[in-house]
Amino acid sequence: LLLSVVCFAPQNYPLYIRSVPTENELKFHYTVHTSLDVVDEKISAMGKALVDQRELYLGLLYPTEDYKVYGYVTNSRVKFVMVVDSSNTALRDNEIRSMFRKLHNSYTDIMCNPFYNPGDRIHSRAFDSMVNSMMMQVC
């Protein structure tokens, strides 16, 4: 079960948050925001290798009892975080990677819109429907 998809600006404020309601919403948002520290550590550890490889997928950031948190960063340092239910063992690394690519492509389409101001929150029906289809596909 895909529980959340979050897009963060390079300055680490959320541009887009889509999540399935859980019983403890505050703990869930805390988990998503603390993942940014792990993303920053991975980016600084990879350094130049990240740019040279063009590998934007960061993989599993950290598992908890309830969630697995995955990360992805673009060349412009926009960060995508996905939270998956830890009981979901059917979801493979390649599937997560392809979901991040779809998310990145959809984000690129938004950036190409002349009416979108970079840094504003994302309000796009096409982006919403793509995220919803990803969430339904995983269920």
UniProtKB/TrEMBL annotation:
Its main location: cytoplasm. Signal peptide: none annotated. GO terms for cellular component: endoplasmic reticulum; Golgi apparatus; perinuclear region of cytoplasm; TRAPP complex. The keyword Endoplasmic reticulum applies. Keywords: Cytoplasm, Endoplasmic reticulum, ER-Golgi transport, Golgi apparatus, Transport. It is found in: Cytoplasm, Perinuclear region; Endoplasmic reticulum; Golgi apparatus, cis-Golgi network; Golgi apparatus. It comes from the Eukaryota. The keyword Repeat does not apply. InterPro entries: Longin-like_dom_sf, Sedlin, TRAPPC, TRAPPC2L. GO terms for biological process: endoplasmic reticulum to Golgi vesicle-mediated transport. SUPFAM superfamilies: SNARE-like. Part of the multisubunit transport protein particle (TRAPP) complex. Belongs to the TRAPP small subunits family. Sedlin subfamily. This is Trafficking protein particle complex subunit. It comes from Melopsittacus undulatus. The gene is LOC101877312.
